[in-house]
Amino acid sequence: MFRRPTLVVALVVLALMRFAPSVAALEECRLMRQPDVAGGRIVFVYAGDLWMVARTGGTAARLTTHDGVERFPKLSPDGKTVAFTAEYDGNVDAYTIPLEGGEPTRLTWHPDVDLVAEWYPDGKAVLVRSRRASAIQRFDRFFRVPAGGGFEQPLALPTGGYASFAPDGGALAFVSPSYDNRTWKRYRGGNAPQIWTYDFKANRSERITEWAGPNEWPMWIGRTIYYCSDQGGRRANLWAYDLDRKSRRQVTRFEDDDVRWPSAGSDAIVFENGGYLYVMDVPGEKLTRLRVLVPDDKPFARAEFRNVAKWTKGWSLSPSGKRAVLEARGELFSVPAEKGDVRNLTQTPGTRERDPAWSPDGRWVAFLSDASGELELHVVGGDGRTPDRQVTRGGTTFRFAPLWSPDSKKLAFSDKTRTLWICDVATGRLQRVDKSEYGEIQQFAWSGDSRWIAYARPAANNFTRIEMVSIASARSAGISDGMTDDVSPAFDPDGRYLYFISRRKVDLPAFAFEYAFPFARTDKIYAVS
Question: Which of 61, 199, 219, 290 could form a disulfide with 264 if both were Cys (CB 3.0 to 4.6 A apart)?
Answer without folding.
Answer: 219
